[in-house]
Amino acid sequence: MAEQVFGKTDTKTVSIATDLSAKQGYLVNLDATTYGLVALATDATKFPYPLVDGKDGSVTAATGAIAVGGECRVKIGGTVTVAAALTSDGNGKGIACTTEGQLYGAVALENGVADDIITVKVTQGFFAN
Prior knowledge:
Elements: E1 9-16, E2 27-30, E3 37-40, E4 49-53, E5 62-75, E6 85-88, E7 94-96, E8 103-108, E9 117-126
Parallel strand pairs: 1-3
Antiparallel strand pairs: 1-5, 2-3, 2-4, 4-5, 5-9, 6-7, 6-8, 8-9
């Protein structure tokens, strides 16, 4: 979704088996058994990736794109401050990491509150207090 991208975003084409057509800017996880398949992220136990091009793959196989580097926009599920490491809440929205060892997929480049869409730097890591 081109209107969400600021600066340069590195993307990877992925397979989508569910309806993610309205989930651009949400976080997704790669499937542990099927190469290249993504699903909406639901917790901090896998590295989340911002979905930049979602499709409806619920009827037939579809391809979309995730951000794997650069900057993009992410919908957040709570209060976030600049430089916060972002993981996923139970609905695929970005939230600030709070617990040692959580996996994150982006770092906030601006402040925001629940349901804002903010600019992030895409990077994966393990949260440490």
